Amino acid sequence: MDVLLDNLDLFERGFLNTIQLFVLAAIGSLVLGMVLAMLRVSPVPFLRAAGTAYVTLFRNTPLTLIFFFFAFAFPLLEIVSISYFTAAVTALSLYTAAFICEVVRSGINTVPVGQAEAARALGLGFGQILTSVVLPQATRAVVPPMVSTLIALLKNTTVAAGFSVAEAGAIRDYLSERGEPALTGLLWVALFFVILVVPMTLLQRSLEKRWSVAR
Amino acid sequence: MSSVLFDLPGPRARARHRLLAVVGVVVIAAIIGFVIYRFAVTGQFASRMWEWLLYEKVQLDLVSSLLATLQAFALGAVLALVFGAVFAAGRLSDHAVLRVPSTAIVEFFRAVPLVVMIFIFHYGIGLGAPFNSVVLGLMLYNGAVLAEIFRSGVESLPRGQREAAYALGMRKTQVMLLVLLPQAVRAMLPTIVSQLVVLLKDTALGFLITYPELLYYARYLGGIAEFGRPLVPVTMVVAAMYIVMCLLLTWLAHYLERRNRRSKKAVPTAPTALGEDGDVAVTAVAGTGQLTSQQY
């Protein structure tokens, strides 16, 4: 308990940074993921192929490697100089977007064919079918796995600890500077993560239970 | 499936699609072109930057660090499967004494980030060589996820299977081992393999605690001044290695899925809406429109 109370400032700063990383990366990956999902269901074969290539590439690369690239290799390309925090947000967004894209795309695939056919028979266009018929129905299938992806994102933010971002995973470094025992500090970090993750898991389960009955 | 979203294109739609395709090609070519241009400007394509590939010592070291990655993966995978099987059995047990603690343990290990867990083992408890901490972390985290996969696999089987087995006079263990598990494993095989892909990717976390695996070696190699600090080329080569390994495993998952679907005896993949965290991808099972979520 002392380790926590004596170093409350460290824990506060660490978890605030974690939550900041999480929120920014969540927004980034949701936007990019939606765009990618649109590409993957679009009528233009080239755009579909581009979306597929992106998803294959990023889903099969370890997140640590993407972090590695943006923290160490990207600055060598001298495009723009980015802080470690920006690098972490970029890496997390690019990685998570591939998973968000897959969740949205498979959600669209669960909507029965008849729905889209009926909408087409009514003369709606691609955009109209997607926004007023398919997507509202796909939401049911999309939201629970989306929450799971976001939980994973929250946990993945800790990888940034290895790349000079002062978030929750890095609390240990600062604690050991102050001569505190690493184990107690890390166990507190683990406990806070459980506290953050469990409500999201419960939300995801209840959504899944309530919505999986559809049709 | 996505083809139902739009009609067979008429002449105007075709023209529009062609325009979109051209715009898409231009935009993506511009992005890739810009990246290649930056690579060229900063001298990443200079032959000096790629010279390291020619040294036998470097090649051998690259292979041995790849082996270190695979070693952590293999041991972690086996242990995680065992851990998953044990705790899935615990969660399915009729006795609350076993069920409640196993549920708590599984939920706990799923909620704690793998990085924090590896840090606890390495810096907190101090297990000696980084290898131990990496493998233990991989085992506990992925084992907990696999336990959930096994459990939902068993629970998704039709109730008649269990009832028929009991009616034949089998005991609880026999029902589980001879009837339920073989079917559940078969139905969940693609999901299990996908989780193993996650495990393979997670071995890269060993980099954070200086386990000498592929990424760690890449960092070392990229900093050698004699080769001109070829960090960018090295990262590209290592990324390609990871992608190829993961794709091979993913391909295995697809192959198993296909084989599974072809067999008439296979259980229909049940509506297991796995409540997992972790990176989830959802695949619609052909024909049923049901969701089977997989962790990536």
Automatic annotation (TrEMBL), chain A:
Organism domain of life: Bacteria
BP GO terms, sorted: amino acid transport
Report the GO terms under cellular component: ATP-binding cassette (ABC) transporter complex
Question: What Pfam families is this protein classified in?
Answer: BPD_transp_1 (PF00528)
Main subcellular localization, coarse class?
A: membrane
Q: Which PROSITE patterns match?
A: ABC_TM1
The chain positions of domain ABC transmembrane type-1 read: 15-204
Q: Where in the cell is it found?
A: Cell membrane
Q: Which Gene3D superfamilies match?
A: MetI-like (1.10.3720.10)
Where are the bilayer-spanning segments? 20-42, 63-85, 182-203
- Name the Gene Ontology molecular function terms of this record: transmembrane transporter activity
Membrane topology summary: Multi-pass membrane protein
Keywords from the named record: Amino-acid transport, Cell membrane, Membrane, Transmembrane, Transmembrane helix, Transport
Q: Tell me its family.
A: Belongs to the binding-protein-dependent transport system permease family. HisMQ subfamily.
Spell out the protein name for this chain.
Answer: Glutamate transport system permease protein
- Could you tell me which species this protein originates from? Goodfellowiella coeruleoviolacea
From TrEMBL, chain B:
Q: Name one GO cellular component term.
A: ATP-binding cassette (ABC) transporter complex
One Gene Ontology biological process: amino acid transport
For this chain, the family text in UniProt reads: Belongs to the binding-protein-dependent transport system permease family.
Kindly give the PROSITE patterns that the UniProt entry links to this protein. Answer: ABC_TM1
Q: Which GO terms describe its molecular function?
A: transmembrane transporter activity
Q: What is its main location?
A: membrane
Localisation per UniProt entry: Cell membrane
Membrane topology classification:
Multi-pass membrane protein
- Give the Gene3D superfamilies listed for this entry: MetI-like
Residue ranges spanning the membrane: these are 20-40, 60-87, 108-125, 131-154, 175-198, 231-256
**What's the name of the protein?**
Glutamate transport system permease protein
Keywords from the UniProt entry: Cell membrane, Membrane, Transmembrane, Transmembrane helix, Transport
Query: Which InterPro entries does the entry mention?
Result: AA_ABC_transptr_permease_3TM, ArtM/GltK/GlnP/TcyL/YhdX-like, MetI-like, MetI-like_sf
Q: Report domain ABC transmembrane type-1 positions.
A: 62-253
Pfam families (alphabetical): BPD_transp_1 (PF00528)
